[in-house]
Amino acid sequence: MNTEILRIDEKNADSPVETEKLRRAASVINGGGLVVFPTETVYGLGASALDFSAVKKIYEVKGRPCDNPLIAHVADARDICEYAEITQTAERIIGEFLPAPLTLVLKKKNSALDACCSLDTVAIRVPKNKAARKLIGLSGAPVAAPSANLSGKPSHTDPEYIIRDFDGMVDMIVCGENCEIGLESTVISFNADGSLNILRSGHITREMLSGYKICESAPELRGAPRSPGMKYTHYSPDAPLYLLLGSEAEITEFVKKEMRRKKAGFLCFDEFLGHFGENENIAAIGARGDLAAQAKNLFGALNRLDALGLDAIYSIMPERTGIGEAVYSRLAKASGGKVINV
Ligand code: TXA
Ligand code: MG
Fold first, then answer.
1. Percent of the chain beyond pLDDT 90?
2. For residue 233, what pLDDT band results from cuts at 50, 70 and 90?
3. Residues 144, 246 share a domain
4. 282 and 185, same structural domain?
5. Domain that holds residue 99
6. For residue range 155-169, what is the model confidence (pLDDT) as tens digits?
7. Which ligand has the shortest distance to the CA of 44?
8. What's the 123 CA to ligand 1 centre distance in angstroms?
């Protein structure tokens, strides 16, 4: 398949030139094609959410298990009520946050989004990224889009890695900037008593949702996972990934020893760089206290280390407050829970 690669200037999404490019991308979606596009969280692999055969192609290209449903992206929060029942709490959330890196799992109102999800619920998101919203608006239909990565592998925030993975497999790749947030949207669902569940952590943090009653029991610890995607391995580089617990000095010593014994990579805070010489196997994701930088840089760093064919990747343990919780959750999943007390 010939993949058209289109570079857009996201900041000028409303200019005539960029509008024309987004119109072309929208016409590919309308015609049943697959388009990779940037959002504020990660790149998405999009198709018309109303088109069963287009959505089926998303699953094939990603190698995604067919029981893991997709998020339907709409251009405007007012479009949500066309497809889903909006509870009082959901209405408050919509008014307070959207558009945002936040996905709402709601009860379906009709069968329009059955291609995205065969359950009686559907996950809906209104992206904050203006170019993404414009693309969805121009396509005139909700856009089904999982993260644009091969199933089980780290998500993508950098268009160059997307071209490596998807050139020849999709109709079009819309390349914008590196995604500003860097981690997938927060996913929430709603309970009958007005409380909500955080099914996936993200930029909209628990602290930001503190005005709402949050049901605390971790969904993945209950009998059936409430978010089907949670039961699958995620974000994993080819090399085994280990999270390290210890002081900066202990971790430095451990990683140096491992680097002498094998082809080891190190995903670290900027503060560690001074302890090592120039070394391509080291990827810093931000200063220890800069949680937003860590979120933005995490997937780029994981993908870069993954491409080096390493024997093992060691990683610092991020601080679990604010968006640090989301950084931690991605690393915990990528490592499959492997932690070394150095
Ligand atoms: O930031 C994002 O959300 C990105 C961009 C492209 O918008 N998309 C994304 O999609 O991360 P995906 O498919 O990689 O992750 C969606 C998650 C999966 O864990 C899936 O199981 C869950 O949302 N999900 C989808 N529909 C659901 C539903 N009806 N109920 C519960 N969980 C659902
Ligand atoms: Mg994903």
1. 94
2. confident
3. no
4. no
5. 4-200
6. 999 999 999 999 999
7. 1
8. 7
pLDDT single digits (tens) 139-151? 999 999 999 999 9
To the nearest 10°, report the CA torsion of 146, 148, 150, 154: -100
Q: What is the pLDDT at residue 227?
A: 67
Q: Is the pLDDT of residue 80 over 70?
A: yes
- Contact criterion met (CB below 8 Å) for 190 and 92: no
**Are 186 and 250 members of one domain?**
no
**22 shares its domain with 115:** yes
Q: Whole-angstrom Cα distance, residue 178 to residue 16? A: 23
210 belongs to a structural domain: no
Q: Which residue from 113, 184, 231 has its CB within 8 A of the most atoms of ligand 1, so it is best to mutate?
A: 184
- Residue 11, pLDDT above cutoff 70: yes
Contact predicate 268/284, CB 8 Å:
yes
In this prediction, residue 234 carries a pLDDT of 82
CATH number at residue 88: 3.90.870.10
- Claim: this prediction has a pTM higher than 0.90: yes
Protein residue with least CA distance to atom 29, ligand 1: 122
pLDDT of residue 213: 97
Residue type for 12, please?
N
For ligand 2, the distance from its centroid to the CA atom of residue 342, given in whole angstroms, is: 31
Distance CA 21, CA 13 (A): 9
Going from the C-alpha of 289 to that of each of 246, 268, 269, 322, 332, the distances in angstroms are 17, 12, 9, 11, 19
Say how many Å lie between the CA of residue 143 and the centre of ligand 1: 13
214 in any annotated domain: no
Q: Which of 103, 114, 120, 233 to mutate to test the pocket of ligand 1 (most atoms within 8 A of CB)?
A: 103
Domain count along the chain: 2
Residue 265 included in any domain? yes
| Nearest ligand by distance to the CA of 37 | 1
| Residue to probe by mutation, ligand 1, list 29, 68, 71, most atoms within 8 Å of CB | 71
Do 171 and 264 belong together in one domain?
Answer: no
